[in-house]
Design a protein that fits this description.
Chain A: Keywords: Coiled coil, Magnesium, Metal-binding. The complex is a heterodimer. Chain A is an alpha/beta fold. Chain A contains 9 helices and 14 strands. Chain B has a 6-stranded parallel β-sheet. A 4-stranded parallel β-sheet of chain B has the order 6-7-8-11. Chain B is globular. Classes of the chains: A alpha/beta, B alpha/beta. Chains A and B meet through helix 4, strand 10 and helix 5 of A and helix 5, strand 10 and helix 6 of B.
Amino acid sequence: MAARRALKAVLVDLSGTLHVEDSAVPGAQEALKRLRSAPVTIRFVTNTTKECKRDLLERLTKLGFDIAENEIFTSLTAARNLLEQKQVRPLLLVDDKALPDFTGIATEDPNAVVVGLAPEHFHYEMMNKAFRLILDGAPLIAIHKARYFKKKNGLALGPGPFVTGLEYATDTKATVVGKPEKTFFLEALRGTSCAPEEAVMIGDDCRDDVGGAQNAGMHGILVRTGKYRPGDEDKINPAPYLTCESFPAQREDASLGCSPFQIIQGCCKQLSWQSFSTGIRNSFHN
Amino acid sequence: MGTPLPGGPRGGLRRGQDGGAKMAAQDGGAKMAAWARGVRGLLLDISGVLYDSGGSGGGVPIAGSAEAVRKIKASGLKLRFCTNETQATREKFVKKLQGLGFDISVAEVTAPAPAACRLLKERGLRPHLLVHDDLVPEFAEIDKTNPNCVVVGDAAENFSYANVNEAFRVLIGLEKPVLISLGRGRYYKETDGLKLDVGAYMKALEYACDVEAEVVGKPAKAFFESALAEMGVPPREAIMIGDDIVSDVGGAQQCGMRAVQVRTGKYRAFGHHRASPTPPGWLLNAVIRPAEDPTRNELLIQLIPNRPCDENHPQVKPDAYVNNLAEAVDVILSQL
């Protein structure tokens, strides 16, 4: 790294990085504990449209992770921040389970539209309601634009197609707030007094986690867990800053790559990315 | 006023960026008169031109339109109704219009469903239908078993998540997904407000399956051509009159016809004054809030987002703007 910058913040993806469905990535709890001994701010960042922070926290605590609610930053948080910034009152087309993340936001007489994954809201009457608001100038905010997702009984439409339909009908563009949007990563750092160049993002999604973070000026570390498939690291340009076996990978696995936590720890000690690169090389040669 | 439009050779009248509606209408009449002289046939859009749909009676006629249709027929001009209406069979639709006082018959209507049926037969396609219940009889003679394409129309209340998802699953399960859309309109006006049209759902399915729909109906060129053929009039001797700047006006012009935009139906008058002092992307909107005592009326001025509107559309420039069908017909007939 050219700039001599200290590492001040670490962003960690949740699903696929700390846990896969209902099991923790083995050793991830311990690794997180060790990471906490380093002088860095930690944020857990995730694209979710269904789970509010409270539910996420409950699930992670059950899995043995030591995490505080205010360390979690989700696409719902990003949407909320945007609503507060714009001082608008949303029509919320989001799952009921996501509503707690919007507590305290005024919703009567709406002048904005927020679309998450909410099949129960995607009926003609509600779509028309959203459409008329947008046509009258209400901003359209999309939690994300996924095309479809897998359900037990087959594929099901995500919010993307409905957002696209509204965009077409009203001749507007939605503001997408989740990963890999640049603003998502920048918002996640808000209040940390940390510049993007001083942050690292660790995740299993090469495009959305690593590519998105690097596009925002951060360093991206790709882990080979979760949705990772061999060759993913070649999908983005510039390539991931580093690719590691897993979040908690140990030094003994150095042949497979080193652990992000070791890197971060080393980096914090040396307080510069430049010496950090040397540190990594050393860890390989040990 | 009436300065040549950037990007188009058509003279046409437009309500200028700097003129009032009334003045523009008069100006429009004069401008239109010149090229309306050689006209032999008229194509009329129905919804938003003849009537506004919706409500308990099925709709409300637009003032002067029934009389205008009678005048056209009495004049000897050829006449055809060119609609993207897909909420009912033509029989049912025409019956409703007759009930509203219009002189119209099924044989005079060009609509997307019959055109789609011809296309399905030609290509051996078996459709999964995402359409209004009342349109289904139009497809009575089409084999719908083991579908190998999806036909989407203005399904209105049938656009539930479950129904849209079912159409999506059929499409995504096909080796080569074929999506046929009955029109691509963005929205239309009913008596209780604007409603999403088939285009929004066509786009949703296109995005979900990464396909491009084949459009049957306006603004497809083939659709206008079949309406012209049925009327027996070449495009340069025909005028299309509609309320949809893209589907009616743009589509007809692509076909070589002249096209007139009415300021009824879904037409939206939002405009942007070129010299507006408002910040980019915004424009000033003035609204009068009436009081009981008119001398106490309040004038509200607000900033509203500017977006492409029907009066200043970035791509389509109508040959003329008129306030309604009656006005268009009066000007055209005065030239005969």
